Amino acid sequence: MKRFGILTSGGDCQGLNAAIRGVAKALYEEFDEEVEIYGIQDGYRGLIEGIYCKMKPNDFSGILTLGGTILGTSRQPFKLMRVVAEGQVDKVQAMKANYKRMNLDCLIILGGNGTHKTANLLSEEGLNVVTLPKTIDNDIWGTDMTFGFHSALEIATNVIDCIHTTATSHGRVFIVEIMGHKVGWLPLYAGIAGGADVILLPEIPYNIKSIAKTLKERNKAGKRFSILAVAEGAISLDESKLSKKEFKAARAAMTQPSIAYRVANEIEQITGQEIRVTVPGHFQRGGQPCAYDRMLSTRFGAAAARLIMQKNYGNMVALRNGSIVPVPLSEVAGKLKTVPVSCEEIQAARDIGITFGD
Ligand code: F6P
Questions:
Q1: Pairing of strands 147-148, 198-200
Q2: Nearest residue to 1 (alpha-carbon basis) of 38, 31, 40
Q3: Range 152-285: architecture per CATH
Q4: Could you read off the pLDDT of 36-75 as tens digits, one per residue?
Q5: Which reaction(s) are listed as its catalytic activity (predicted)?
Q6: In the structure, how many helices (H) and strands (E) does the chain have?
């Protein structure tokens, strides 16, 4: 009898259930009746606290198109994993103990960057671990694409599309704030796909005067409206010169609810134009996975099962140049896949007149 544990950790995204289904179905196929799968509840929290249950094959049916995660998820900050406060359990030891208690052959972990740091830690501690890269941010090092990204892209693009019609009617300037954490993949792609006029990314610090100049030029050219796709992680040129500590303090002192509102405020002060702000927020992570994500999640799931069959543990399944390949967790952990400022996508955007506020 083979026993596997599966958990989803960190922020949810579309395609998690499709990936869970993919890996479970492939494992049941390969091992016939000789397999038990334990669903661990709410990510690492369930592994720490020993909250899990034996799943039935039918539990993995009918979930391909379902958003969120049937296993639940939670954020367990990596920096606290090693901290054992007085009177508290040692989380790493607790996770190892529950892995042993379940008598697992392998733990399958679906997660983003923070999750991968902990997965690598568990692998270093001697647990058999295989991971799948999920996140709408597409910021996991080692894979060309994460599942969740394309579904969120569809939603964010749709938001910009909808803003277009009202912006055109009223002749207004709109800012759409797009998720992506500290990287700009989602705002970049949604901005281009949605036809934004200005895109602000964390990778290209913005100069507010340059944005104001673009807007004035558009006015002069008779354009009735302008749309700015602003990354939630966008930073100004001045902020880019601050130390980490100074940056944190500056952001803590910010009076606006988010970066989009601050940019709006700054532009209003320079141009006198009234700006409207739209923040779709977690909407971008919700709902059904798009066809691309169902496909990628299923491919990742099947590939993870293949790695398990081969006892090729300590790896993340990754998409590279169209193929699914294993990437060692030690290479993935602690790195961030940012948008290269000279990438082809940014060049294409510049070629058609989109500006980046630099
Ligand atoms: O990592 C996915 C993500 O949606 C980011 O884009 C965003 O910065 C963050 O999670 C939001 O986190 P939370 O769900 O904890 O508010």
A1: unpaired
A2: 31
A3: 3-Layer(aba) Sandwich (3.40)
A4: 999 999 999 999 999 999 999 999 999 999 999 999 999 9
A5: beta-D-fructose 6-phosphate + ATP = beta-D-fructose 1,6-bisphosphate + ADP + H(+)
A6: 13, 12
Distance 11 CA to ligand 1 centre (A): 6
Give span(s): CATH 3.40.50.460, the chain.
152-285
Find out whether the beta carbon of 184 lies less than 6 Å from any atom of ligand 1: no
Question: 198 alpha carbon to ligand 1 midpoint, in Å?
Answer: 23
Confidence of residue 89 (pLDDT cuts 50, 70, 90): confident
- Bridge partner list, 137: none
CATH 3.40.50.450 fits 2-147+289-332, yes or no: yes
Is 347 a residue whose pLDDT tops 90?
Answer: yes
11 lines ligand 1 (CB under 6 A): yes
> Mean of the pLDDT values across residues 263-271?
96
195: how many CB neighbours lie within 10 A of its CB? 14
Q: What is the pLDDT of residue 76?
A: 87
Indicate the helix (H) or strand (E) that contains 239: helix 237-240
User: What's the pLDDT tens digit per position in 163-206?
Assistant: 999 999 999 999 999 999 999 999 999 999 999 999 999 999 99
pLDDT at 259: 97
CATH 3.40.50.450 range(s) for the chain read: 2-147+289-332
Q: Whose CA is nearest to atom 10 of ligand 1?
A: 11
Closest residue by CA, ligand 1 atom 8: 181
Spatial neighbors of 145 by CB under 8 A, at least 6 apart, are: 138, 296, 319
Residues in the chain: 358
Residue identifier of the C-alpha nearest atom 5 of ligand 1:
181
Q: How far is the CA of 91 from the centre of ligand 1 (A)?
A: 23
